[in-house]
Design a protein that fits this description.
Blueprint: E1 12-23, E2 26-37, E3 40-45, H1 52-59, E4 67-72, E5 75-77, H2 82-87, E6 90-93, H3 105-109, E7 116-117, E8 120-121, H4 123-136, H5 152-164, E9 170-174, H6 182-197, E10 201-205, H7 209-215, E11 218-223, E12 226-232, H8 238-246, E13 266-275, E14 279-287, E15 290-295, H9 302-308, E16 317-322, E17 325-326, H10 332-337, E18 340-343, H11 347-350, H12 358-363, H13 367-370, H14 378-389, H15 409-422, E19 427-431, H16 439-454, E20 458-463, H17 466-472, E21 475-480, E22 483-489, H18 495-501
Parallel strand pairs: 3-10, 3-11, 6-9, 9-10, 15-20, 15-21, 18-19, 19-20
Antiparallel strand pairs: 1-2, 1-4, 4-5, 7-8, 11-12, 13-14, 13-16, 16-17, 21-22
Helix pairs in contact: 14-15, 15-16
Length: 504
Amino acid sequence: MSTSGTAVATTTVVATAGIRKSFGGVEVLKGVDLEARSGSVLALLGENGAGKSTLVKIIVGDYRPNAGTVIIDDEAHPTLTPIESRAAGISMIAQEFNDAPTLTVAENISLGRIPHRRGIVSWREMNRRARAILESLEADIDVEAEISTLTVGERQFVEIARALSSDARVLILDEPTAALSQHEADVLFDRIRRLRDQGQAIVYITHRLDEVFALSDRVQVLRDGEVALLEATESVDRPQLVAAMVGRHDLGTGRPDSTGGPDGDVALRWTGASSPPNFADVNLHVGAGEVVALFGKLGSGALEIGRSAFGLEPITEGTLEIGGQVADLAGPVDAVNHGIGFLSEDRKVGGAFASRPVGENVAVASWPRLATRGILNADVEQQAFNRWLGRLAIRSSGQASQPMEELSGGNQQKVLVSRWLEREANALVMLEPTRGVDVGARADLYRVLRDLAAQGAAILIVTSDYEEVIAVADRASVVAKGRITAALEGDDINMNSLLTHAGG
């Protein structure tokens, strides 16, 4: 548990009592109590679908509960509107971006609080405010840059800056580090601790258990809409938290039973590959029957190396070989024709068609083979979905017509994997494959990847999550400042080695 510098007397600022909520006759919250205390960080855990997001959306006024109350400063509210919640000093940073992409960084930070004099916007004051809050976060971001030009991590920091600039008494953070580098995450943690020590109440939603022990004073776990655990963080350990979240102790990973290795045919090989300024002199290979991890913090160049396998990052020096043949990829279509499957780090922007059926999401990359006269019919989509439904343990209604957006993050990732298996891809490149995915679904996805490797698949995962590398990789290469700084195998794949070679 993180220790505070100055003891602050804690009082309950916001609480829920007996909150119940149903959607379409299905009860997702079954009488949940929660307390956000001043000078304290509450870690809120649970698998996707456990009710975490629904509960906090009731607190911020986005949803109306069917029963129970939200209590603010000892005053009970059967319902709240978003305006009433904000006026009470409650601010939330959602997992999905809630910014205005065509506005500047400064404009986004000041949304709803634009400084003006006699109706005329004070651009100088707006920019000054934005610079001050970003400097406090040690975030080097141009306040006059348009949001759409920023990286995922930079956009996340702008969201955090906007929430912190509103002087909220209660700060709810939903997976805030999912897109941040280790340095950015460390800066955020320091900021959270300072806010806590100043008396702020913080609710911190995360799937990363190391963050629970680094930040929180108390931890609460929801499972199936009920409180499965509520304890002081110092009194629990990881196995207890995992068991509370998933209802069982034995999750495991595929790595100890790994049968993959570098002895199979090489599916992907970078030799002296460079793409200035993102990466240089990269030597890396991925063999059939193994899972290789490329580990690096945000901005390290790791993501760009992964993208180069899909024709999204040009290689200007050196070579990329696919299946033993030098490939000069003109773009993603060329990569697909070379047998490469690819999952973007942002599945909702670069992969999943959220509003379309799951069957269509599976079949889309195999359209030329599956379509009749250019048309995919429902039966063909159902057949394609059925081929992978059981094999990948996709938790869904089983109907190919179900909208993709109704599935949890982990199951959406499985659908995207099945897209490329249906396409019969020779190699699968996955960027940040479990970002926003809960503990149980992560373990399921890791087992899927290990099973695929055991059957001869070549898999490259590019990730900033060292726990992910440790859990699933046969081999790992570490990237820092655009160069591979270490190649690790076996017991050398550990937290200390990964973070040390990544500059952490």
